[in-house]
Amino acid sequence: GVVSISYRTLVSSPLSLRTSIGESEQAFGSHPQALGIVLVKDLPSVYKSYRETLLNLGYKYAHLPEDVKERYTDPGSSYSFGWSHGKEIMNGKPDTLKASYYANPVVDTPDVSSALREQHREYYRENIWPDAKEKGIEGFESAFKDLGRFVFQVGCELAAACEPFVSKHFGDTSFSLVDLIARSQTTKARLLHYFPPSLGDVKDGDDEPIDSWCGFHLDNSLLTGLCAAMFLREEDDGQPSVVPSPSPESGLYIRTRGGELTKVSIPDDCLAFQTGEALQLVTGGRLRATPHCVRVGGSFERISRETFALFMQPDTHQKVSATETFGQVHQKNIREALRE
SS3 letters for the chain? Predict the structure, then answer.
C-alpha cells in the first residue's frame, strides 16, 4: 500500500522517517512494489480551507465566459502560465477533457536575466492573474498562492527528510535535494478542472482505457505535491455541490516499479508527493519517476473533478545528466506535449 507519514513527525523528527520514506524502498525506492508516492497526514487545520477554497475557484473559473477565460492566457509561454484548454496533446489528439491554470505560487517574477527569461519562457515569465475584481472568482490569486505555498513548504520539509536517502544516489554531490527545490525559480503549480465526461468521451466498462481522463506520463519535477481531488456536481440552480467520487474506477492510477497498475486514493485531509523525471535523471535512474494517469471510470453528467498539483523542480541551468540541463530536457518534453 501507500506509505503514509505524519506531518508532526516530519517537522519534529524528520530523520526518523528515513526508513519509512526511503531505506525500506517501499515508497521512493526501487523495490518492485514501490509506488513512488508518499502520503503526508496530520496536516495543520488551515490546509482544509486552502484546498476547498481554491478547488471551488477552479470550478468557477472554468465556468466563466470564454472571452473572460481567454483574457488570461499566455501563448508566448506555450500556455504554461495562466489558462490553458485544448492546447496539449493526450493520446494523440488535442486534450479537451481537462483545463488548467498555471502559475508560480512562490515568486511572481523570477529573478533571472532577460536572456534566460526569453530562452525558457515556460518557466520564467511573470505570473498572469485574473483581475482582483473579476466577478465570480474574487480572491483567486491569494487562494492560489495560499495553497501553493503551503504545499511548497511541506514539500521542502519532505525533501529534507529524504536527503540522507536521496543524496547517496546523486551522481553530483555538490548540491542537495533541498537546495534544488528551495532555491529554484521554476516552481510551477497547476490548478486542474476535469470537465464532466459525456457518453461520447469515454467507452463503456472494460473498453474504457485506463488513462481516459489524463494519459500516462511522468512529471518533469523532482517532487510533485498533489491534493486530493474534489468532485463537484452542477445543481439545477447552477451552483456546485461536493459529491463523492461518481465511480469506484475513477481517479489516479500509478504503475509500481515492477509494472503493476495500482489505483491510489488520497484522503481529503492529506497531501501526496510523488517522484518526477528530474529526480530520476539526477540520480542516474536509481530513483525512478512515477508513471501515472487518471481514469474517468464511466460517463456521468454534471460532475467535474477538481485538483491541484505543485511541481518542485530545479532551475533550467541545473545539470540533470552528464549531457543535459533541466531546461534542455523540459523543452524536449514540451515539444512532444504541445501542438507544433
Answer: CCEEEEHHHHHHCHHHHHHHHHHCCCCCCCCCCCCCEEEEECCCCHHHHHHHHHHHHHHHHHCCCHHHHHCCECHHHCCCCEEEECCEEECCEECCCEEEEEECCCCCCCCCCHHHHHHCHHHHCCCCCCCCCCCCCCCHHHHHHHHHHHHHHHHHHHHHHHHHHHHCCCCCCCCCHHHHHHCCCCCEEEEEEECCCCCCCCCCHHHCCCCCCEEEECCCCCEEEEECCEEEEECCCCCEEEECCCCCCCEEEEECCCCCEEEECCCCCCEEEEECHHHHHHCCCCCCCCCEEEECCCCCCCEEEEEEEEEECCCCCCECCCCCEHHHHHHHHHHHHECC
